[in-house]
Amino acid sequence: MKKISIVGDSISTYKNCNPDGYAVYYDAEIQSVNDMTGPDDTWWAQVIQALDGELCVNNSYSGSRVSGRGFPAACCEERTSALRTGTDRPDLILVYIGFNDFGYGVPVKRAGLTSDLTTFADAYVHMLRAIRQKEPQAAIVCGTIMRTVMRHRPNWAFPEDYGGFGLEDYNDVIRQACRRAQCLLADTSALNLRYETLDGTHPTRKGHATIAEAWCRCLQQLF
Length: 223
Description:
By secondary structure, this protein is an alpha/beta fold.
């Protein structure tokens, strides 16, 4: 059976499904208000089931960004080294992270610097290359950042720009990073599916199903 690891942020966390000590968003209270009844309601569990696989490691940390000089940034050594468990190594790694970089207006790139892990572009490529070096046997698939809707605010408009950088600036970085690091792209954003939230960021049970649908549609084209 194919072993699958996840790299993510709060969207992909779930109580008792992440490494010990990792910050988790979907605790019992948050699960309840978002209609979540168990891990099987998450996008990643639904994708793993669709692939007839099993979870290896869910390396997702609530509040984390791709960028940063240390833990819990997804580009750091601790995160890129934590995608296996014991003797089990992943056959497939699904990377779905970047919403916090976008939400906090992390610079996409700074001119004149050869490598700056506080920028999204450099950190994303560094993350992928580090994962590739540590898990050469695994296929790595990166998802672009999807837009959202809010359940109780039908007129709410998704904020396309934070800190001077638009969502598609970050998604273009992900697309380019996949080419540079020779990884696969799941261009979930390009499907124009918007997932349901209560707060504009974190998916409800229905929202997770939408993210899973987007991932499955992209993966069907890749494999």
